[in-house]
Amino acid sequence: MSTLNRRTFIGTTAVSMAGFSIVPSHAVSGMGHIAPSDKLNIAGIGIGGKGKVNLKNMPGQNIVALCDVDWEYAKPVFETYPKAKKWKDFRKMLEEQKDIDAVVIATPDHTHAVTAAAAMELDKHVYLQKPLTHSVWESRYLTKLAKQTGVVTQMGNEGHSSDTVYEVAEVVQSGCLGEIREAHVWTNRPIWRQGMPQPLKEVEIPKTLDWDLFIGPAKMRAYNPEYHPWIWRGWWDFGTGALGDMGCHLLDVPNYALQLGAPKAFQASSSLVNTESAPVSAKVTYLFPARKNLPYCALPELELTWYDGGLMPARPFDLPLNAPMNPGGGFMLVGSEAVLIAESYGGNWKVYKNGSVITPETKVKIDRIPDDSNGGGRHEMHFVNCCKNGGKPASSFEYSGPFNEMVVMGNLAVRMQSLQKTLLWDGKNMKVTNISAAEKLVTTKLTPFSSDVVTQKVEGESKKSVKWNAQEMCEEWIKHTYKNGWSLT
Questions:
Q1: Is 165:252 a contact under the CB 8 Å cutoff?
Q2: Could you give phi then psi for residue 65, rounded to 5 degrees?
Q3: Which has the least CB within 10 A, 92, 125, 293, 420?
Q4: pLDDT digits (tens, 9 = 90+) for 290-329
Q5: Which residues is 103 bridged to in the sheet?
């Protein structure tokens, strides 16, 4: 899973097209194959998990190509779309199959950017699962590339097309809560293993899996079923933990309604941080500067705190005893006049004032996302309709790129917490400004485990401290160094 050297890839494609005049995909749908009212030719990349759902939620379209590194995991999807051409390497698919208008990408987080960029460079519209990217820099890169190419883009935070997102935004932007200087967002994730050391035992790679393509731009390691399928989310090299998994869902309404932009500072605390995987639980706090006031709503400096692994914010003392704060996930906006509590994407939202539920009066109206799903997914079909008929999806990279920068930045705070300081952020230059060249970062390396042993006597230490140059590691986690042969620039 990676992108070829950009000049080579584009040059090869350009040669194969020499002598032809082709209408670009942002003018008509994908490489000029179809008229705006016809079906979209879609390729699925990473189809065994969430990609399967996204494709199902795009009914009536032509699924012309299916790509997955594990053909056994993807087998049910292959059987669902028997006419689609099958691939393992998305690079070959994009280079050789010319009838693709759009791609749906649901690969592990660490391959999102290279896959999406390769498709965008070839004028394919891109529906990319959340989190948008594995790192801050990758998000910025895709945002710029979307603007440059003009293709239609959408991040797969499906709830952003829900009416409740805009209902809550109307309440907030009407000033119903007063000045909001405090927000809290929480999830019960992870529901997979985190806080784990690297597996000790090397396991034979399944014959149906191309492990090298799964690794992609990450550092090579031996195969183990602890990495694939699905459980990759908890490993730093492949996933972004509970924050990356659920942040693009639960942080979406606060980000959209309060027009947060980039924070100016952030910090974190968590259970034990180790070199291999995200912690079992974490708390991340972002400080956002004052933004330009809206007609009915001031936007002062705001402190937003994220909680995962079962951690929860304290209940306001004047909140009714029976007021729900869904332990599975939700958010709370604390204003000077009232408090709003909701579930993901504003579901079941309620406003509390002086200990009672109130019905706020709104002064603004925000357009809803058209429900033209025709039995499919509202978010997915919104993307499809924009590809065919023009328009900008609700969670286009113009919106979701900067938003995702903020989300995955939280993991930077988690991994840097041994510095015991608030990290000051220069958003324009994507840089933490208060780490000196000599500072050391201390993290924990756990003794590798063997899944064959239920109980084991550990000889010596089961964990040890590892020291890194803090500035170098901070830069690496903002912009990853890819394995040889993989590049975005």
A1: yes
A2: -150, 145
A3: 420
A4: 999 999 999 999 999 999 999 999 999 989 988 999 999 9
A5: 43, 126
Q: Is 474 left (phi over 0), alpha (psi -120 to 50) or beta?
A: alpha
DSSP β-ladder status, 85-87 and 62-67: parallel
The model's confidence at residue 485, banded by pLDDT at 50, 70 and 90, is very high
Distance CA 24, CA 386 (A): 15
Q: How far apart are CA 175 and CA 336, in angstroms?
A: 10
Q: Which of 412, 132, 186 is nearest to 304 (CA)?
A: 186
Contact 15, 129 (CB under 8 A): no
* Domain formed by 6-160+372-399, architecture: 3-Layer(aba) Sandwich (3.40)
- The total number of residues shown for the chain amounts to 489
pLDDT band at 22 (very low <50, low <70, confident <90, very high): very low
Cβ-contact 261, 288 below 8 angstroms: yes
User: Which candidate, 380, 332, 331, 339, places its Cα nearest to that of 356?
Assistant: 339
Do 205 and 223 form a contact (C-beta atoms < 8 A)? yes
DSSP state letter for 84: S
Beta bridge partners of residue 424, listed in sequence order: 265
Domains of the chain, by residue range, sit at: 6-160+372-399
180-187 vs 125-128, strand pairing mode: unpaired
DSSP letters of 387-419?
HHH----TT-HHHHHHHHHHHHHHHHHHHTGGG
Contact indicator for 62, 43 with CB cutoff of 8 Å:
no
Task: Please check whether residue 486 is in contact with residue 4, taking contact to mean a CB–CB distance below 8 angstroms.
Answer: no
Report residue 463 as tokens: 């964990």
Answer yes or no: are the C-beta atoms of 408 and 131 closer than 8 Å: yes
CA distance 279 to 327: 19
Tell which residue, 24, 43, 25, has the closest CA to residue 90.
43
Asked if 363 and 174 touch (Cβ cutoff 8 Å), the reply is yes
Helices and strands: H and E segment counts in the chain: 13, 18
**Residue 183 to residues 87, 150, 248, 319, 341, Cα–Cα distance (Å):** 45, 35, 16, 15, 10
Which region among 11-25, 172-186, 205-219, 325-339 has the lowest average model confidence (pLDDT)? Answer: 11-25
